[in-house]
Amino acid sequence: MFLSLVGLAHFYLWHRMVRSTTGPGRSRRALTWGLVGLVLLVVAAFAGSRVEWGHWLAWPGYLWVAVMFYLVVILVVLEIPRAVAALLLRRAASRSATPEPVPVLAGAGGPAEDEPVAPPAAEAAPMSRRLFLGRATAAVAGVGALGTVGYGVTTALGDPVTERVRVALPKLDPRLSGLRFAVVSDVHLGPLTGLRHTERIVRMINGLEADVVAIVGDLVDGPVAELGPLARPLKDLESRYGAYFVTGNHEYYVSGGPGEWIEELAELGVRSLRNERVEIRHQGAVLDLAGVNDVGGVDAGDPPDFDKALGGREAGRSTVLLAHQPIQVAEAARHGVDLQLSGHTHGGQLAPFNLVVGLQQPVVSGLATVDGVPVYVTRGAGFWGPPVRVGAPPEITMLELRA
């Protein structure tokens, strides 16, 4: 499916950026082969991200994916104005081509039959309407796409936004009111991130002085042997009651599954909640903090188990659930969860892709109530694929519980 979408996108770009802007000849052939090379670059970037030298291909490949995306979006939006402009130009051309009668005075003699008539002055052939519209449209799309991606790179590689959210829970013990969670997700340590990326996130979390740190999945995009050094700053996380982690779908893409990362995080002082819960004791009251595996663990034989994580709880005690994907709230509601913290969506990462994400997840970003359960979905602190964020800046959340 991925290869098909990439192929269709590049064919559309060839039609609008090459065929509509050039005539048959050397220029069209050169641009066509250049576009074929970009298709191969995209495939190599995704495949190369799993090998040691892949980051050399990842940067140009992923950046082109973002430029390609916005070229397609802008060109599709311009299809209607382009069609209207073509119609107007055709009408104007037809009017100018209609000869107007030239009045001749009676008795005025024209040139003699044997008198030579001077040919009209030579004029440069005007650019065809097709080429004019094609080049104008391509120029607008190119400038728009490059500008958008440039802005998106600056946003993605900059400091995450700190979102401060208060969530009122009807059953919350008043003594737990004011309990603060630092929520972070989708850090995506990988070939395009460096040590400073992790250090910055840890520094910002520590600055929030939270009671609990919740890492809601998709922390890594590679094995411990490759990315272990990038995760070491996590040992410096500070909070009153500890840092907790649940798996995301990307942890199951790592060769061998999430097991080695679970062990590595334990050595760094981050506890993984694998279909289990812990008690958070605060000011003489107790809150259940539960975590379930991501639905991506189903195919890996490590599925979410809500009965194991949430069964047998003490009646009347509030429960906060860490679950990577918002869609898991349907099962959480059946188990009487008071609040779910999730990530996964990136807030869409590349607007207007957020509209597509909304077809698959009940919440794209922010706080919403689904099946009677408040769900907070963080946009994530990192990025996946293109190092670009448009309309969805990276985020670290300070979430405070209120009675």
Automatic annotation (TrEMBL):
Cofactor needs: a divalent metal cation
Domain Calcineurin-like phosphoesterase: 179-347
GO cellular component terms given for this protein: membrane
Record keywords, A-Z: Hydrolase, Membrane, Metal-binding, Transmembrane, Transmembrane helix
Listed InterPro entries: Calcineurin-like_PHP, Metallo-depent_PP-like, Metallophosphoesterase_sf
Residue span of region Disordered: 100-119
Name of the protein: Metallophosphoesterase
Membrane keyword on record: yes
Keyword Membrane: yes
One GO MF term attached to the UniProt entry: metal ion binding
Biological process terms in GO annotation: lipid A biosynthetic process
Family in the record: Belongs to the metallophosphoesterase superfamily.
Lineage: Bacteria, Bacillati, Actinomycetota, Actinomycetes, Streptosporangiales
Entry's transmembrane regions: 30-49, 61-81
